[in-house]
Amino acid sequence: MKVSVYRKFVNTSNRLRILLRPMGPADEELVKNMFAGQAAKDVRFLKEDVHDPAVVSNWFRNLDYETVVPLLAMHGELLVGDATLHRRRGAERHIGELRIYLAREFRGVGLGMQMLRELIEIGREMGLHMLLAEVVSEELAVIKAFRKLGFVRHAEFDDYLMDATGSLHDVSIMVLSLAARKEYLF
Question: Per the confidence metrics, is the pTM higher than 0.85?
Answer without folding.
Answer: yes
